[in-house]
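[Q] Does anyone have a clean structure-token version of this?
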Amino acid sequence: MDKILLDTDVILDFFFDREPFAENAAQIISLCERKEIDAFITPVICSNLYYLLRQNSTHAFVIKQLKQLLSIVDIIPIDKNVIFSALESGFKDFKDAIQSFAAVQWEGMQLIVSRNIKDFSKSEIPAMTPEHFLKARTLQ
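[A] Here you go.
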């Protein structure tokens, strides 16, 4: 079974129904619901989602949305080693470095799914767009 880290942008595409990306995001969320893939987020992604969703919705609604998401994805930890690795990395974006090193630390993580794959060019774990991830799954 695929083990993937879902980046914030993919989840926001789903929550905000952002075209033309919403359909691919919805398909990935559906794969998570059907337990066809193991998807993960980090505490940073969870916090960013709360912040961004809260700008347009009530606290109660955002909490409900996050609980629903957490019923189909798991959270991987971020520890001191992840932070130090991110600080010492050549990543331009510290948040993306944290995501990458948290994914590396999690056993069996195969892929980061993000629309901003260039942000993960220095990652030890490959990054793939949602579109390419879905196409690759149909070829298996």
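[Q] Thanks! Anything notable?
[A] The chain has a mean pLDDT of 95.
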